[in-house]
């Protein structure tokens, strides 16, 4: 044990012996499995191997990606946020209602983002300062946001605002393929979140709290700020996702996004994040969303399954994925 | 007994203390953890907090740093009245603390753990390269050979403790508080720590030091405050207090066990006895090279070695906590693989882990449940231990090991570190094992209790139990063991009967081995 | 009364030509017996007529439905049909379908989009269903006052809050009973379209109010739940408390024929034949009306007894 | 310190105090809104009234919550209970419909037994994924939550299956000793669970596994078996709940039976004072929690809250109850000048043991 540090190895040696650090393994496994799933699907169903299908996956799941980002922050601290689905519905409703009332679209967007953020803040405060379990505080948030949505309007309201519609249809062409702005916003959110988590004190504190909250506190980290902060971020992301969703369906409806929080949580966990906190990456959550998306796509390309087989097959694919992923990552020690 | 600090006339009384705590009281429910305690800290001085397990040392420290809020009393810092409301606040005010249990986050790297909250940044982003470099420098400075990029929980508890120390000494602090930093370090590491402490003291830092090793106190501390049962006993200068007097002050009575200590454990000629367990070529990839070991009835086998030499891993393999890749285990005459601790327990093996926080304590259960956990587990859930037996066993061991508070219904997590350790020891003694593997059983245990435990071990061996004893404190190992196994670099390098082997001998064996393989790889 | 149709049905289509039609159908979900009957009708008819049906169950989520429609566009099916989960928000994907020259037929529920984006809408009118129920009550007001106190106290078991059928049926019902001052809705609460929900809500209504004359349930299932609650309270459904429901599924019709329900407005799920027919017409370039109503009636106990034997669902 | 003050203190510190208080307040609200709320009368040889309805309707949530309590105590969660309940209903109803004599007692008994066995198997499947394969509980049970609905729909072919069996029907609507049978069943399961966990060492071992899995493993606790059993038990409880719900309407709707009951059950568990972080659990608390949920459900139509405000009302109640229960919140609201309570220091440390286990295993 008394030997000094190892002499610096040559670059070649480093490349030759490079093995990805263990903590990236779940991520790599997930990616490989996703590609595998896509490949198998591409062989089975024509049209599925079209790269546009992949891009559509991003477009169709833009809101879920953003939700997943917010959820990742929360789960990394060892918490959970059940309210996001309802906040999405509330956001679509606020956007639709305010636009109907003739607000400027930008004001409307601001109102949506503000509402989501404030809701997140309230839940964060409940959780940290009143010591209410995240599951319950955010369950109350779920009821509250859904309740507010009903309060605004029971009936659905469509969005006809030109700014919104043009934003919704705005596409960027990459050769033969096109991508919507919403997808680009979602990817940008992932990038920003990845940076925040990896390279800022706030981000590292998020991991520290997930690792051991009382240690983080004893280490003098800003636990209160960070813990409340992740719920604020999640609330903001939910509102942003709500906007993307509003752009996607151009309407506000109180029945939107029921159970969407489960999709978001599932995506995060499939992406390799531990529900107990402290381990995981937003990129994993992005992959998780894509995995859920590709399962759906596979099923609608198949198109011969009855309602109940669709559910069963979804479960089976999920199972296969999780089990293989588990074995792939367990091999390391 | 209750001497107010002012009465203690010291030449330095004129000097201004950096921190003064006056009449501090804290109550937890019915437990009065601190009762009007006063302490002064002077710059450029190492101040030892002394007291038995549960005396209130850790609580006092937490009261100072804002973890607990005080019920009454006054804290002044540099002459101003002040009370911290969070550890963050105390840290900002220049108080750097290493708490008793390792309080780091297991999922981040060593470097991150050292620099969390004060990472070097460039353009607002954490500069990872610089962070690793800084961490490496500090570690090197302390003589700790650890890759700063490795994840913390890959390291044994001792390394984690060193990292926690490194984190604390890395800042420019007015006050450095170390709550039992040395409890699982070996002599080498302790020496390195002391070097750093001395340097900081000379730079004018006030250092609070808690340790149950009196030798260490006498080596490094200048002044000490002695607590008993949450009350202040006295403030003393170390140079003016003899060890015996100190012990009397701490315990409140003469300690007769101490004498017994020096009468070394009865040496038995155990090789004659029945082999209880024979390990041949026991090993595990990356953690332990193939090792042979035989345990006989009624002997204590001490395992000596430096930090990271593979002692813990050997113990874990013997217990089935980890599964061995190679080798064979024979119990009496039955050849068996150990696939889980459960198998080992069924063969009457017990193992007390060195990492009590992560691998021992079940914090939210009561002391009684913690004590009876292993016995209950081996009986199976369908056969609960009868109430009368429960009470009997628990009361017996609370008394035998002097566990405080002597309340079987107290929650385990509210016990002081040393008392938790005693409960864990009781957990295994209650199962009446044939082979008892103790990894750092005296970690954080006060001097009186340590003597008790050592006496207990000797007594058990005399009754026919086979004990494997691992401790960072070589003296302790030598004092107790009948046979000595020396380990280095994850393998056994020597095994000998302990006939007056000295610490020097062991260190020389280890060093000699090092010289022997100077040239080759690694 | 309804079905004011006749907007011209736009241009022709790419068509398949090779005989077999490929149809993509995005169903809402499988949330009720009505819906499963609807799905089954469409799947069976498609099979019988040799239509290659691509079926997706959106599990009640609009985003799933949109994704399914989008995948049909990518698969270049001949015609797309779907029962929208909600009325709004399909503009974008309908535009994509239009750009890809794939005709769209709506079933069961309407959408609130530019009518040029789809060929036709096949389905019932929920408001009319509510009106029929309300009208019957007005017509039979004299009988309905079970306890003879001069006022007719109606309790309403609503469908899922925010769902189009719930909103429309309540609206139609309210419109009609406004004509009679003695009829009053004294309590209204959602039973989520389920029997269990209907039963629990009805139990509570019965505990708190012993002057209930009529139950109006937005579907048969809640009505069936209400029957159980009424029986448990020691009353006789259909006599002590009159019951009006909507849907006319088999269990409901059975109860109706036994006199436990007094009136059921039909909402026909068997859209398969009509849908396939419309699809064929659309692909052949024929004109189709913009609004095709399903053939529906309403039943009294006597009528129910007659038709019960050959109800398919 | 007189005898009485200590007793008052003991009551004040009793963990059940706050849930019970919340329940009392909720009942009071109902009574104020409708004074006849608590009236109970005899009818057809059994008791009849809001209170009796509440007891009966609390049975499914209570059953599910009992299983959930043990799962949560091991640091797990079971999202699949709703789907399992649906499967139980589907299996039992199709069995009854398919039987030779639809109305016979043996038919009902066979169908119920068969359904419950299926549920135990499904629960054990969850346990397998969690304990042997080491998949995170939320995802492991999500799989069955998704697929289970499909399975139950496959069993009933998507149709609402109506049954005519008086014995089966009695599961929900029957009365024994003037009390609803469903409630008595739930009570029996509660008693059984309480005896099973508190009269044996099982409860303590479950708690140990939930608090510190690695320490428990090293102490020789068979964590795997325990986790497995607990999920199987949760499956069984969910199955019973499903049967009661199906019997309540004499029919099964695979799609809506037990939908979101997992949330209600978890809420009941938490209101009862069991922490989702695992460890110590309170069955009595879960009992009170389930009654609370059922009372809340009855409150909405009873005081005539419009449908569109249901959620808002629920949100307010949930927040109020949780604030009432949180010692921290009570301390904040109490008008006293005492500084933070000492417990405000390090929260009960949920140790990083799983991480350690991950590396070492
Ligand atoms: N959070 C708490 N709740 C209840 N009692 C507590 C709590 N923390 C500490 N105590 C009690 O306070 C007393 C003092 O404990 P403390 O940890 O300060 O002892 P210590 O002197 O550090 O002992 P050791 O040498 O064993 O570490 C003990 O009796 C302990 O049981
Ligand atoms: N879980 C693990 N994963 C990887 N390496 C490990 C693990 N546990 C221990 N090691 C390594 O195995 C070697 C032996 O460690 P072990 O804990 O057995 O040492 P020890 O002699 O008990 O020292 P200590 O004084 O730290 O207890 C060390 O180099 C350590 O880094
Ligand atoms: Mg201490
Ligand atoms: Mg060790």
TrEMBL record, chain A:
Query: Where located?
Result: Cell membrane
How this chain sits in the membrane, per its record, is: Multi-pass membrane protein
Membrane spanning residue stretches? 24-41, 53-76, 106-128, 135-157, 177-198, 228-249, 255-275, 282-301, 307-328
Q: Which Pfam families does this entry report, sorted A to Z?
A: BPD_transp_2 (PF02653)
Residues of the signal peptide: none
Question: Which terms in the Gene Ontology molecular function aspect does this entry carry?
Answer: transmembrane transporter activity
- InterPro entries for this protein: ABC_transp_permease
Keywords from UniProt, A to Z, are: Cell membrane, Membrane, Transmembrane, Transmembrane helix
Q: GO CC annotation: what is one?
A: plasma membrane
Q: What is its main location?
A: membrane
**Which protein is depicted?**
Sugar ABC transporter permease YjfF
TrEMBL record, chain B:
Localisation per UniProt entry: Cell membrane
GO CC annotations, alphabetized? plasma membrane
Topology in the lipid bilayer: Peripheral membrane protein
Task: Identify the residues that the record assigns to the ABC transporter domain, covering every copy.
Answer: 19-254, 271-514
Q: Which domain of life is it from?
A: Bacteria
Per the record, the major location class is: membrane
This protein's UniProt keywords:
ATP-binding, Cell membrane, Membrane, Nucleotide-binding, Repeat, Translocase, Transport
Q: Which Pfam families match?
A: ABC_tran
SUPFAM superfamilies xref list: P-loop containing nucleoside triphosphate hydrolases
Gene Ontology terms for molecular function: ATP binding; ATP hydrolysis activity
* Protein's name in the database: Sugar ABC transporter ATP-binding protein
Record the organism.
Nocardioides currus
TrEMBL record, chain D:
User: Would the keyword Nucleus be found if you checked this record's keyword annotation?
Assistant: no
Q: Does the keyword Metal-binding apply?
A: no
Identify this protein by name.
Sugar ABC transporter permease
Q: Which GO terms describe its molecular function?
A: transmembrane transporter activity
InterPro entries documented for this protein: ABC_transp_permease
- Topology versus the membrane, per the UniProt entry? Multi-pass membrane protein
Q: Locate the compositionally biased regions of type Pro residues.
A: 340-351
GO annotation, cellular component aspect: plasma membrane
Where is the segment annotated Disordered? Answer: 340-361
Highest taxon above the source species: Bacteria
**Annotated localization:** Cell membrane
Q: Which residues cross the membrane?
A: 16-34, 54-72, 79-97, 103-125, 132-151, 171-196, 226-245, 257-276, 283-303, 309-327
Q: Where is the composition biased (Low complexity)?
A: 352-361
Q: What is the lineage of its organism?
A: Bacteria, Bacillati, Actinomycetota, Actinomycetes, Propionibacteriales
Entry keyword set: Cell membrane, Membrane, Transmembrane, Transmembrane helix
